[in-house]
Design brief:
By secondary structure, the protein is of the alpha/beta class. The strands form three sheets. A six-stranded parallel β-sheet has the order 7-4-3-8-9-10, with helices on both faces. A two-stranded antiparallel ribbon has the order 1-2. The longest helix has 16 residues.
């Protein structure tokens, strides 16, 4: 049964059987004090604001039987999937693969690469490792969604203007409808968060819809 989520720029039609929740990069290195994000001088407290909303959204999605996908940005230990331009972008000593506060920076399998305990995946949920900002590039995400008959995405995670926005734009070009759950997303820079959300629902929803956690959960809980 289709439900309606009050959103910008208008109501979003939700069919749980054809919708997936995608939680972007809620990783220890980005969110926890002492991680890579904090070592770069970012205020990880800005990202922590999204955690309780993500927890509530995740619980409601599980109860409603949605496909749940967790993404993690990171690279192979040998860095063969890391473009040189991306590797060189950070200062020496803080580059991908260098020793960091929680193991090698942005390397799969290192402690900092893991998802925070508050949002730990459970059996049956997809954990998708991605080497780029968007969740579709060089991953099996599109194939997973097509195989499950998914046509719409609820998107949460960090950061709003980087990996969340990039994923939504990639999804939009592939024909998926996207609802970004605003308070379940966050940025180290609040003004970037606000601007990124405005860009998504501008011009009649050029990239998608934006709603808050309460409205999204209310629709999920109305599902028979």
């Amino acid at each position: 049964m289709t439900q309606r989520i009050e959103a910008l720029p208008g109501a979003f039609a939700l069919d749980p059987a054809r919708t997936a929740l995608v939680i972007i990069d809620m990783q220890r290195d980005f969110l926890e004090p002492g991680g890579f994000g904090a070592a770069l001088g970012n205020d990880v407290g800005q990202l922590a604001r999204a955690v309780p909303h993500c927890q509530a959204l995740l619980a409601a999605a599980r109860d409603a039987g949605l496909l749940v996908i967790h993404t993690r940005e990171g690279h192979r230990p040998d860095l063969t999937d890391c473009p040189p331009a991306k590797h060189r972008r950070a200062p020496e000593g803080m580059r991908i693969g260098d020793p960091g506060p929680m193991g090698r920076i942005l390397i799969r399998g290192e402690p900092g690469h893991g998802i925070i305990p508050e949002l730990a995946p459970i059996a049956g949920e997809v954990v998708l490792d991605k080497p780029g900002k968007g969740a579709f590039w060089a991953t099996e995400l599109e194939n997973i969604l097509r195989n499950r008959g998914i046509e719409a995405l609820l998107v949460a995670g960090v950061t709003t203007e980087v990996c969340v926005s990039t994923t939504v734009r990639e999804a939009n070009d592939r024909g998926f409808r996207c609802l970004v759950v605003a308070d379940a997303c966050a940025s180290y820079f609040p003004e970037f968060h606000t601007a990124a959300l405005a860009m998504i629902h501008a011009q009649g929803g050029i990239f998608g819809w934006v709603a808050d956690t309460a409205a999204t959960i209310a629709a999920l809980r109305s599902t028979p």
